[in-house]
Amino acid sequence: MADKKKQADADVAADEGVADGKPARKKKFPLKLILMAVGGLVLLGAGGGAFFMMKNKASATAMAAPVAKPPAFLDLPDTLVNLSNTGNERPQYLKVKIVLELPDQTMVAQVQPVLPRVMDSFQTYLRELRPTDLDGSAGLYRLKEELTRRVNNAIVPSRVNAVLFKEIVVQ
């Protein structure tokens, strides 16, 4: 029985790489080899990613891009209004030349019939302004946004891209 136990211990020692009480040296991959393999994989991944990105970019430029329609512009009649007077100040006037930027030329025919409604909406709003409402670029931006909103309400279901100022004078 003792012989069987010694034989079993010897088999276990041989399996674990232990011979004569000394452990056997395990084979390790050199660190340089591992780093080179990882570096190679990274380079291959980056190269493959660049290839597919360039391929997609090239195919996107090869496809015919839809041609955007140039916008159409519609000049409105010059507008001259007196601004709201707060107190005993002398009256001040606002002269504005406005251009509507339309999505395409076909919109001009749709806007022309409702132009009196658009001008009425503009006149009503502009007469309520005070000179301080037009101070600085923020005041002009608010004016442009409000006029755009009003013209879009007047020409529903159509829409304009923007209201542009050719000239703005406060006297």
From TrEMBL:
| InterPro entries reported for this sequence | FliL
Spell out the subcellular localization from the entry. Answer: Cell inner membrane; Cell membrane
Q: Which Pfam family, any one of them, does this sequence belong to?
A: FliL
Q: Name one GO biological process term.
A: chemotaxis
- Where are the bilayer-spanning segments? 33-54
Membrane-protein topology: Single-pass membrane protein
Predominant subcellular localization, coarse grouping? membrane
What does the UniProt record say this protein does? Controls the rotational direction of flagella during chemotaxis.
Protein known as: Flagellar protein FliL
Gene symbol? fliL
